[in-house]
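Task 17 of the worksheet. Students: predict the tertiary structure of the chain below and write it out as structure tokens. Keep your answer in the requested format; marks are given for formatting as well as content.
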Amino acid sequence: MKKMRSTKLFLLTLILVFTETIAFSQSETWKEKFQKELELFGHRNWILIVDAAYPLQSKPAIKTIFSGEEQMTVVHEVLNTIDHSPHVFAEVFLDKEIDYVPESEAKGIEAYKTRLWEVLNGRTVIKDLHEDLISKVDEAAKTFNVLVIKTNMTIPYTSVFLRLNCGYWSPEQEAEMRKNMKK
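Model answer:
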């Protein structure tokens, strides 16, 4: 009887390990998850590329994934993918605090900023207080989805906030149309 129980237990354990292994091997990479989200996202959705200490937010519309990669790799990959998406473009927001974090307190901040500006490659960047950016994301999440991609970055105020806008209809076109509607 004991032998039968141990055989059943052994088989059950094997089945569980096998099932978990299959599930693990079929799990998506952060890039695959991001790509699926981007296909569904449009104007007013946000994508955040954040440091390791960024909080897990509780709103159901805010989905967090962990990349396990270096932040600049993720920023570059995300921006490159968005740049090749015909339906959206990204408005870039950074923490205003990044300009006030000294190298003596956060080793690597200066090198990070240099690399970040290279990756942002002349894009318009809006700097706002970190708490204000989180509030904007929180407000947007009342109606729209937000994707947060956590990285292994351990330097403060290095989050990159991307608000998506329509890639085939500019804010100027929208303003002109609205002006014409009033005529």
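Marker's comment: Residues 9-25 have pLDDT under 50 and may be disordered. The domain at 28-168 is CATH 3.40.1650.10 (RbsD-like fold).
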